[in-house]
Design brief:
Blueprint: H1 2-34, E1 37-41, E2 46-55, E3 58-64, H2 65-68, E4 76-78, E5 84-86, E6 88-92, E7 98-104, H3 130-133, E8 146-153, E9 163-174, E10 184-187, E11 198-204, E12 221-234, E13 240-248, H4 251-259, H5 261-264, H6 269-280
Antiparallel strand pairs: 1-2, 1-4, 2-3, 3-7, 4-5, 6-7, 8-9, 8-11, 9-10, 10-13, 11-12, 12-13
């Protein structure tokens, strides 16, 4: 009887340790993401932006072009500390609703790694073999089709402030030649203000950090930027389908970021991205 009682207590303690670790780490995931996604104070309305690079005190962000208005407008960016800094537009694209901008600050922000700049499969991870066998690789080069959409919603009748949201999503398809480059489709109930925010998939932490898991967990996986959110599908005022649209990082956008990666401090490739995510994610496993 004593052995059985001890076993039950031991199992209970292990369960609660795991549960508490997941709870803490889930909170850490949200906290980390919040240091990567910022509010743009646009000329007409607010929007969101995603930090993708850092060189010294200069940060680079991606956002939806329509959030910025025109190049003649004045743009500011609001940081987690409450500080406001001037935003400088570096690049816009003619056929895509996307802009690249920069600002200066000494505040410590997190870079959200770009999925298209990390090879698949990433070496020394479960992506090399287990994911292929279990058919967990998606067509987006992420683990399964699980995603999150994150950004700051505008005030509503129910919520009177800009609210940081991390919304569960499911990647659906990559279209071709959609208007304004909105080729990324995902199931997610997004709201106004989140335009310019992040659509993230998930990748695997290193095997030597016990990275493989059958389900997504902040212990084992880290978010990567798949695209920039910007629209919700609308059927002529008859309601929404629950499908949202984003601009994937591909083609001319991807090439521009690769060509400017050193100048803008954008992590690219296995070594640079792994160094970044090991500081921000992949660090909470109870196994090491």
């Amino acid at each position: 009887m004593k052995l059985k009682k001890f076993s039950i207590i031991f199992i209970f303690l292990i369960f609660n340790l795991t549960k508490n670790q997941n709870t803490i780490l889930a909170s850490s995931f949200r906290t980390s993401l919040r240091k990567s996604i910022l509010i743009i104070k646009g000329p007409a309305s607010d929007g969101s932006a995603v930090v993708v690079g850092k060189n010294g005190n200069s940060y680079t962000v991606l956002t939806a072009k329509h959030v910025l208005g025109t190049k003649n407008d004045t743009h500011d960016i609001l940081l987690p500390s409450g500080q406001i800094h001037k935003l400088i537009i570096l690049k816009t694209f003619n056929k895509e609703d996307l802009a690249i901008a920069s600002f200066q600050t000494k505040e410590d922000l997190y870079i959200l790694p770009i999925n298209a700049l990390l090879p698949y499969p990433a070496p020394n991870t479960a992506e090399e073999n287990e994911y292929a066998q279990l058919e967990l690789k998606s067509e987006f080069n992420t683990i399964d089709y699980v995603a999150r959409v994150s950004g700051y919603s505008l005030p509503t009748n129910a919520v009177k402030t800009n609210l940081f949201r991390v919304i569960d999503a499911s990647l659906i398809a990559q279209a071709k030649n959609n208007k304004d480059g909105y080729d990324l489709l995902y199931q997610a109930s997004t709201v106004k203000g989140m335009s310019g925010g992040a659509v993230v998939g998930f990748r695997d932490c290193e095997d030597n950090q016990q990275g493989f898991t059958f389900t997504l967990s902040p212990i084992f996986n880290f978010p990567t930027l798949v695209g920039i959110h910007g629209r919700s599908e609308d059927y002529h005022g008859d309601g929404r389908s629950g499908i949202s649209l984003g601009i994937p990082i591909k083609g001319k956008i991807k090439n521009f970021l690769i060509n400017k990666k050193d100048e803008l401090g954008i992590p690219s490739g296995e070594l640079e991205i792994r160094s970044t995510v090991n500081k921000q994610y992949c660090k909470g496993s109870i196994f090491y």
